[in-house]
Amino acid sequence: MILNIVITISDWIQIGIAIITLVSVIISLIIAILTLKQNTRMIENSTKPSVIIYKDILDINSPLEYLVIKNVGNSLAYITSIEFDKTKLHKISDGDIKEATKAFDFLNNSTLAPQQLYRIPINTKDLEFDTITFDIFYSDGVKKYKEQNTIYLKQDQKIPYIKQHQSNNELKVISNAIQELIKRIS
Question: Does pTM surpass 0.90?
Answer without folding.
Answer: no
